[in-house]
């Protein structure tokens, strides 16, 4: 009997590849169990019955050819010419780093620009690399391009690829559990009952109202919801739509999470060489807008002086949370805002108009939270309330919760806990005035006491004197 020969190197190579894929999934926060392993093995070994799905973890793979980048040769050439105009003499490697494209792609295009006599090689930089400078014809063309659009940053990502990334990282597939919520809200004192009300709303990914008296932590709750959806996502620095370059990555609102040292190791498929540098890994976004929100913030905004466009707030918050704080106090009317978003909230996609006038359908994949001190029924009609299925009231704390909050805040603010002084505060300044408890009061009153003690040169303690002073200062017009 002939014993079948086993090709051990091939098996080991397959194992290494599978292990790399598993490491990439785990680094993206995707739970990997036996089912995931089976699916990966089937897809890697060519099982036609287990095709890859759009719900698999998303990681942008660096294109090896220009055709794989999803943009035209003309777009990359224009960016390179404008970059050279702004910086002068540059190497091919520097062009590659600026445009976030592989060296081989940029090298091919640079040689074409040289053939077209738009640039000239000045000197050798490294082996296989040269310093380049614009010719007179190249400088004239670059000036004309810069007058139309001054952007020469990262090469944009195709719109279709952006849409695919949003769908692959959708919040509706996360399904956070009670344990996930407990971890996300660990630094806040929130009752189990409140978590049970928040959980289904967060799982739905369809939006909610948080309403209640000011100072009870509605904004703090909303800002922590994002953590329940997982830690990070990938977003493009910019996208390309119908000759328009639209910036998506916003350093003011997006927190970049660079690859760790372990992830950059060559054995890991999520290393720098395999990742498309046109994308940025960020914490799942939490975009907060308040009274400053205007209608133009909901549309693609064009900068005429630079010729570039900026993505609207709902697009920047995709795969995360969009918090409309102090809802009802915006510069635009509630009716206009609701009319603008009534369809996106229902159908989970939005329609935007590019600067060239083209209408595009964009994913509307975020949990929209309307935080307000007003009753929702006093702000919106029944048609809109139906599209926001969860209305959650954040109530005033009970007496026992108020005491517990005071004790927690004393520990955080390094003030000795004194139950007798807190009882004095309640009996003298709350009960007689029928003053309601608020979740923010312990922190705010202790801060008043701290500042008073610091000014008087006294130890940081709660006494009747400094509590009376703090209450008079804090509640003077409340």
List key phrases describing it:
478 residues, 4 domains, alpha/beta, elongated, 17 strands, 5-stranded parallel sheet, Arc Repressor Mutant, subunit A, 5-stranded mixed sheet, Rossmann fold
Describe what is shown at a glance.
By secondary structure, this protein is an alpha/beta fold. The protein folds into four domains: 8-44, no CATH class; 66-155, Arc Repressor Mutant, subunit A, CATH 1.10.10.10; 171-393, 3-Layer(aba) Sandwich (Rossmann fold), CATH 3.40.50.300; 399-474, no CATH class.
Topology record:
Blueprint: H1 8-27, H2 34-44, H3 66-69, H4 73-87, E1 90-91, H5 92-99, H6 103-115, E2 119-124, E3 130-134, H7 136-148, E4 157-158, H8 159-168, H9 178-184, H10 192-204, E5 208-211, H11 218-225, E6 232-236, E7 238-241, E8 244-247, E9 279-283, E10 286-289, E11 301-303, E12 308-310, H12 313-316, E13 321-324, H13 334-347, E14 349-353, E15 359-363, E16 367-372, H14 376-379, H15 382-387, E17 390-393, H16 399-412, H17 419-430, H18 441-456, H19 464-474
Parallel strand pairs: 4-7, 5-16, 5-17, 8-12, 10-13, 13-16
Antiparallel strand pairs: 1-3, 2-3, 6-9, 7-8, 11-12, 14-15
Structure description:
The strands form five sheets. The chain has a five-stranded mixed beta sheet. It is elongated and about 85 Å long. The protein has four domains: 8-44, no CATH class; 66-155, Orthogonal Bundle (Arc Repressor Mutant, subunit A), CATH 1.10.10.10; 171-393, P-loop containing nucleotide triphosphate hydrolases (Rossmann fold), CATH 3.40.50; 399-474, no CATH class. A hairpin with a 2-residue loop joins strand 7 (238-241) and strand 8 (244-247). The protein has 478 residues and is of the alpha/beta class. Helix 5 (92-99) packs across helix 6. Helix content is 42%, strand content 15%. The chain contains 19 helices and 17 strands.
């Amino acid at each position: 009997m002939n014993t079948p020969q086993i090709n051990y190197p091939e098996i080991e190579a397959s194992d290494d590849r599978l292990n790399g894929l598993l490491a990439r999934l785990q680094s993206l926060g995707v739970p990997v169990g036996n089912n995931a392993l089976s699916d990966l093995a089937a897809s890697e070994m060519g099982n036609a019955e287990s095709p890859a799905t759009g719900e698999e973890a998303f990681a942008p793979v660096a294109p090896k050819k220009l055709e794989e980048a999803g943009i035209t040769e003309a777009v990359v050439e224009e960016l390179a010419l404008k970059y050279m105009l702004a910086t002068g003499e540059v190497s091919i490697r520097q062009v590659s780093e600026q445009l976030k494209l592989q060296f081989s792609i940029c090298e091919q295009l640079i040689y074409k620009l040289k053939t077209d006599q738009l640039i000239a090689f000045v000197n050798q930089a490294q082996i296989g690399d040269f310093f380049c400078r614009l010719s007179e014809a190249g400088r004239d063309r670059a000036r004309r391009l810069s007058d139309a659009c001054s952007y020469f940053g990262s090469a944009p990502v195709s719109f279709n690829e952006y849409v695919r990334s949003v769908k692959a990282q959708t919040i509706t597939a996360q399904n956070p559990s009670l344990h996930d919520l407990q971890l996300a809200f660990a630094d806040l004192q929130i009752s189990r009952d409140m978590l049970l009300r928040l959980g289904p709303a967060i799982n739905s990914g369809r939006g909610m109202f948080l309403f209640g008296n000011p100072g009870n932590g509605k904004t703090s709750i909303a800002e922590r919801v994002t953590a329940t959806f997982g830690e990070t996502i990938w977003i493009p620095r910019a996208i390309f739509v119908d000759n328009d370059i639209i910036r998506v990555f916003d350093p003011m609102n997006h927190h970049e999470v660079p690859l760790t040292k372990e992830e950059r190791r060559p054995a890991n498929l999520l290393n720098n060489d395999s990742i498309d540098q046109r994308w940025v890994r960020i914490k799942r976004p939490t975009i907060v807008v308040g009274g400053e929100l205007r209608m133009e913030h909901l549309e693609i905004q064009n900068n005429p002086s630079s010729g570039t466009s900026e993505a609207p707030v709902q697009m920047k918050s995709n795969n995360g949370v969009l918090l409309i704080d102090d809802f009802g106090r915006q510069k635009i009317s509630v009716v206009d805002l609701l009319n603008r978003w009534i369809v996106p909230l229902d159908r989970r996609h939005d329609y935007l108009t590019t600067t060239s006038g083209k209408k595009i359908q964009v994913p509307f994949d975020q949990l929209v939270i309307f935080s307000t001190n007003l009753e929702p029924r006093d702000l919106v009609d029944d048609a809109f309330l139906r599209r926001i299925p969860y209305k959650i009231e954040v109530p005033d704390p009970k007496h026992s919760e108020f005491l517990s909050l005071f004790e927690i805040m004393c520990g955080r603010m390094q003030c000795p806990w004194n139950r007798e002084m807190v009882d004095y505060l309640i009996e003298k300044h709350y009960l007689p005035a029928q003053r309601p408890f608020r979740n923010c009061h312990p922190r705010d009153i202790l801060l008043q006491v701290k500042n008073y003690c610091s000014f008087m040169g006294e130890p940081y303690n709660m006494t009747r004197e400094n509590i009376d002073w703090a209450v008079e200062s804090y509640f003077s017009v409340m």
